[in-house]
């Protein structure tokens, strides 16, 4: 496959509201350790996650096309991509968009043996340009990194719809405002326009047909609640706040109290929303 070269720009700037930093994904280098990255896989309830995967696959399989043209935005190393592509009925080809070149290279190697991978773009959504029109554009929890302010964010939301053909479908998996991910934060790490409700209202105002599937996504925290030590708690803090900095002991205690407040039977519910946008 031809890898289109573009250097990733890594930057971290304060939000205009002064309440957060729009961080890049800090944790690719830690994926081999029992550390921040593994919170996604070790804590999530796999049945919940695969129910989400099945919902995405069902929506893709409803598209009537002799060869489905698909774009995955923010594919990472391709794990979610493969879970979806493995279950698509009929012919398809999937292009990959991912700003981290190392992750994209891993995704290509991981997916190519069994899945139909098309073009590979080491770019951000903001810098991505294409004349192709897709049957399916999907993204899983990448909308937090698209823009630093609301105006630019709106630009990216509009851009996504320009990539669809006349009967195309856009799917965005993200968190609602009431997610426990947001509830347990000590400080706001993402601006309000990242919330599912903002995206839903944005597309409705533009006249698109918007369907929302409200899905469970439980995360296990029983190990954190059953120890007085802070090692796992501080790692979880970094994951929740998307930061490469460890909290102080006092912040850790405050964070623990918020987990205790919102957990139910040793689980938090992140309450994923699958937003489906069509013309």
3D architecture notes:
The chain is of the alpha/beta class and 279 residues long. The protein has one domain (27-163, 173-273): Vaccinia Virus protein VP39 (Rossmann fold), CATH 3.40.50.150. It is 34% helix and 21% strand. It contains ten helices and eleven strands. The chain has helices spanning 39-43, 46-61, 79-85, 101-111, 150-162, 180-183, 196-205, 222-225, 231-241, 249-262, and strands spanning 13-14, 21-22, 67-73, 91-97, 117-121, 134-140, 164-174, 209-214, 218-220, 267-269, 273-278. The strands form three sheets. The chain has a seven-stranded mixed β-sheet, with helices on both faces. A two-stranded antiparallel sheet has the order 1-2. Strands 9-10 form a two-stranded antiparallel ribbon. The two termini are 32 Å apart. 36% of the residues are buried. Mean pLDDT is 89; it is low at 1-23 and 26-34.
Order of helices and strands: EEHHEHEHEEHEHHEEHHHEE
CATH superfamily: Vaccinia Virus protein VP39
Q: Strand portion, in percent?
A: 15-25%
| Distance, first to last CA | 32 Å
CATH class: Alpha Beta
Total of domains: 1
Strand order of the largest sheet: 5-4-3-6-7-11-8
CATH architecture: 3-Layer(aba) Sandwich
Instruction: Let me know the average pLDDT.
Output: 89
CATH topology: Rossmann fold
C-alpha-based Rg, rounded: 19 Å
Enumerate the spans where pLDDT stays under 50 for 5 or more consecutive residues: 1-23, 26-34
Major sheet attributes? 7 strands, mixed
What quaternary form is this? single chain
Helix tally equals 10
From the spread of the alpha carbons, the general shape counts as: globular
